[in-house]
Design brief:
This protein has 300 residues and is of the alpha/beta class. It has two domains: 4-191 and 253-299, Metallo-dependent phosphatases (Purple Acid Phosphatase, chain A, domain 2); 192-244, no CATH class. The chain is built from nine helices and 17 strands. The strands form six sheets. It has a five-stranded mixed sheet with strand order 5-4-1-16-17. A four-stranded mixed sheet has the order 6-7-12-13, with no helix packed on it. Strands 2-3 form a two-stranded antiparallel ribbon. It is globular, with a radius of gyration of 19 Å. The chain starts with a strand and ends with a strand.
Length: 300
């Protein structure tokens, strides 16, 4: 039986990743981390942007994957990087805009690969063929949101090992309001809740948003403060809008995910859906979930 350690969003903080791997008992042998007991790592995506050692992070993670010591799913930042670098032959430009907001979010990665263009092309090709979810014997992994309808669509249409994020696939999923768009958008970025009465929040990039990320994993979503991320103070005690998805997420196999920039000490709020992103890129913690049979421990 193989035991696993699932690791949250790294965002270019390779020193913190190495420290966590060493704490988990992994050793660097021939420049690649492996575990003497045969344990494997699963990464939840978002390896790039923000951090000081993005190149080092990508080499470490990819080498572990290629050596069979790890698996990885795609994060929205890897997806965005592919879209940013793939020309849109239908309407011109690229599948991700090159405006200030997009360049600013991607700037640290572009800067750190300025003199390593062939390496960057290698990593982009690797991103294009990453799976968007994993379903293993004892658990499941996705970057932002596990929804069975979305996952089933990806099973039928996203052939990551052979086709990957080619231009035809990106064109299909770029059609707003389509099933394809919803499947990829929610799997990699999560569902959102529209704010009422013209309210808005300002995200970490300084952008005004009239939708907030839904805490789909939360066991209690009765008020907006409980149900959405970055809820405006004026709405904190307001009930969730009519028609909101207030169901408690239940899964026979636990789902591990990242993406949501949680803070404070890591906790398991819902044993069916466990977030491992605790904002290492904002002075928080890099977190791993150690799986041993039915036992689960958060390590950071």
């Amino acid at each position: 039986m193989i035991f696993y350690d699932v690791i949250g969003d790294v965002h270019g903080y390779s020193d913190e990743l190495e420290a966590l791997l060493q704490k988990l008992g992994y050793l660097k042998v021939n420049e690649v981390y492996s575990h003497p007991g045969g344990r494997k790592v699963v990464f939840v995506g978002d390896f790039i942007d923000r951090g000081p050692k993005i190149r080092e992070t990508l080499h470490l993670v990819r080498d572990m994957v290629l050596s069979g010591n790890a698996q990885a799913v795609m994060g929205n930042h890897e997806y965005n990087a592919v879209c940013f670098n793939t020309p849109n032959l239908h309407s011109g430009g690229y599948y991700r805009k090159h405006n200030y907001k997009e360049i600013h979010q991607h700037y640290d990665t572009l800067k750190q690969f300025k003199d390593f263009s062939s390496e960057w092309e290698m990593f982009l090709d690797w991103f294009r063929h990453l799976p968007m979810f994993l379903e293993l014997d004892a658990f499941k992994v996705v970057h932002a949101y596990w929804n069975d309808d979305n996952i089933n669509w990806l099973k039928e249409n996203y052939k990551h090992a052979t086709i990957g994020l080619n231009a035809d696939f990106l064109q299909a999923v770029s059609v707003k309001e389509s099933i394809a768009f919803k499947a990829v958008e929610e799997t990699l970025k999560g569902p959102e809740q529209e704010l009422p009465d013209g309210q808005f929040m300002v995200d970490k990039e300084g952008t005004e948003r009239r939708e907030c990320r839904l805490k789909w994993w939360s066991a209690n979503k009765s008020t907006m403060g409980e149900g959405i991320m970055s809820c405006p103070d004026s709405l904190f005690e307001s009930p969730m809008p009519e028609g909101s998805d207030l169901k408690i997420f239940i899964s026979e196999k636990p789902v591990f995910f990242g993406h949501y920039w949680l803070h404070d000490n890591p906790v398991i709020e819902n044993k069916s859906a466990i977030c491992l992103d605790y904002s290492v890129a904002k002075g928080g913690k890099l977190v791993a979930a150690r799986m041993e049979g039915d036992q689960l421990q958060l390590i950071y």
